[in-house]
Amino acid sequence: MPKNNSKRTRTIKVDYLARVEGExxxxxxxxxxxxxxxxxxxxxxxxFFEALLRGRHCSEAADITARICGIxxxxxxxxxxxxxxxxxxxxxxxTVRTLRRVLYCGEWIESHLLHIYMLHAPDFLGFHDxxxxxxxxxxxxxxxxxxxxxxxDIVNTIGGREIHPINVRVGGFYKIPDKIKLKxxxxxxxxxxxxxxxxxxxxxTLEFPDYERPYEMLALGHGxxxxxxxxxLRSNFGLDIAADQFEDTIEEEHxxxxxxxxxxxxxxxxxxxxxxxxxNMNYTMLPKSVQMLAExxxxxxxxxxxxxxxxxxxxxxxxxxxxxxxxxxxxxxxDQLPRMPNLDDFLPSTPVLGCAMTEAPRGTLYHxxxxxxxxxxTSANIVPPTAQNQKSIEQDLADLVPQLDQADDQLLxxxxxxxxxxxxxxxxxxxxxxxIHKRSL
Amino acid sequence: xxxxxxxxxxxIGNQFRSDDAVGVVIAEGIAERLxxxxxxxxxxxxxxxxxxAWQQRDLVVVADAVNEDxxxxxxxxxxxxxxxxxxxxxxxxxTHSIGVASAIELGKCLxxxxxxxxxxxxxxxxxxxxxxxxxxxxxSANVLIDALSKRLxxxxxxxxxxxxxxx
Lengths: 441, 167
Description:
The complex is a heterodimer. Chain A is of the alpha+beta class. Chain A has 2 domains: 8-45 and 392-440, no CATH class; 49-389, Cytochrome-c3 Hydrogenase, chain B, CATH 1.10.645. Chain A has helices at 49-53, 61-66, 73-88, 94-125, 130-136, 138-159, 179-203, 246-249, 275-282, 288-296, 309-333, 385-403, 409-421, and strands spanning 8-17, 24-30, 35-42, 168-169, 172-173, 218-221, 232-235, 240-241, 250-253, 262-265, 352-360, 363-371, 377-383, 434-440. By secondary structure, chain B is of the alpha/beta class. Helices cover 38% and strands 19% of the residues of chain B. In chain B, strands 2-1-3-5-4 form a 5-stranded mixed β-sheet, with helices on one face. In chain B, helix 1 (22-34) packs across helix 4 and helix 2 (47-54) crosses helix 3 (100-110). The two termini of chain B are 13 Å apart. Chain A binds chain B through residues 16, 18-19, 23, 45, 70, 114, 118, 129-131, 134-135, 138, 141-142, 145, 148-149, 152, 162-163, 427-428, 430-431, and chain B through 43-44, 46-49, 51-52, 92, 94-95, 97-99, 102, 105-106, 109-112, 129.
C-alpha cells in the first residue's frame, strides 16, 4: 500500500450523504497533527414534524410520525403510541404488547440486514457497493436479501404493509393479524433461523480495524427482556432515567452547519445509542443461545470498537428471529382476542403529557406529546437516534484520522466512510461520494 | 391473463420532491390507460424490494426520474434493460437509494429478474420540495405515457396470440 510520509493538511469533503436522517455532507480538516475541524453537515431542510403534529388528534401521531423514516417507521409508530398511551393512562392488552414486540422484531431484522449486506459489508470487503460484492459473492448477498425479506414479511403481516405500515393504533391495532398468516410467519422464521446464525458467523470473519473509544453508551433497560418497546434509559456511566426525565437529562443544541439538532448529556457531552450500546448494557437479557453465539464469536459485553457493530447487528438479528418465534408461539397458543380500548373513553378532563422511549434499530427514539381535553396535540418533541449519535460520529472521525496519518488517500477516504456507516445513518450511504482534496505542507 | 403474466408497471419517486415524482406520474398514467391489463406498483426504489417484486414476471416496466448533467430537461430515455446495460450514472437520482440501474445489476448477479424489463425515464433537474412537475418534464411524461401504452398494447396483443396458438 502506498504511503505518504510527508506531513500534509488534508481536507475531506463528503458532498452528499443521502438519507442520513435527511441530506448530509461531511467536512473534515486535518492539519497534519490533529483534526482542527469536523462537521457532519445535515443540510436537509427542517421537516417540522413537531409543528405538523400540533393541532392534530393524538390518534394520528403514529401514522404521521411513521412518515419520518421509510426504513424504521415501526420505531416511530411505537414511540408515538406508547407516549400517547402514557399520556392517556391506557393499559394495553398483553397480546397487543406481544404483537408489537414481534412487529419491532420485524423492523430490526429488515433494517439490520439492509445495513449489514447492502451498506456495511462492502466496506469491509473492499467493494465499491453491493453490486460489486454480489458479482463475487452472489450466495452471500442472496442470503442477506432472503433474510431481510422475512423482516419485511413480519412488518407487512402485522403492520399492514411493508413501508410506512398503517395498522398500529393507540390502544392496539386496527386489525388483529390473521392466525393463518402468523403461523406462516412462524414457519418461515423457524426455517430461516440457521441462515441468520450463518449470517452473523460470516460477519465475524471480516477484518476489523483496531480501534476503540471510551463511549458513554445509552440504551433502554428492562428487567425481564432485551429492551425494545419500554424500559429506563441507562448508561455504562451510571445514568438511569425514566422517559419523563429525558429532556431534563439530554439537551439538544442547534449547530450552524446542521439542520438536525445535536444531542448531548447535560454536563457530560457526547454519547452513543444503538446496537453496541444495547448489547453491552443488556447482554444478560439476551437468550443464552445468543450469548453463547456471541461468546463463540469473541464478542464480550465490553465491546467498544464501533466497526464491530456489524457483528452485533447480526447477533440482534438472531435474537429478533428467536424472539419473534417465541412470541408468535405464545400468540398462536392463545384463543383470546385482545382487548382494544376505545380511545374516546380515555380523553382527559385536563391537559396531559406523555413520553416514551423505544429502541429503533439505530438506537433510542424519544417522543413527547402534550394533549388537550379534545385529544388534540398541543406540543410534541421527537429525538431520533441519528441526532444523538451525530456528535460521536464527528468525534470518531476526529480521533481516527490522525491514526491514519500514513495512509494513502484511498484508505483514508474508505475509513472515514466506513466510520460514518458504523452508526447506520441510512441507506444511501452505500453510494460512495467522498472527495479528498489534499495539499502538502 | 394471470396476475404474474400481467405487465407490472413500477413507478419510482417521491411525490413531494417536484420532478422526482415523474416515475410515479408515468406509471399511474399507463395504468389509467390500460387499467386491468396491467398491475401498478408505486415504490421508493428499495432494490431489495424491487428484486422481490419483479421476480417471475413476464414483463416489468420501471419508470423513474433520470438525472444526467448536460442534457436537456425533459429528455426521454428508454432501455430494454435485459438487452443492454443502463448507465448507472443516469438512473441515479439522489433520493432513490442505490438506484434502479444498480438494482438491475444486482438482479443479474443473483438471477432475480423478470423475463422482460423495460426501463424508462425523463431527464429532470428540479428536485426541491413541492408537488408540481416542471413544464418540460410534464410534456415529456405525456409523450412517454402515450408511447409506452401503445407499445404495451402491442406486447399484450402478441402475448394473447401466442397463448392462443399454444392452447
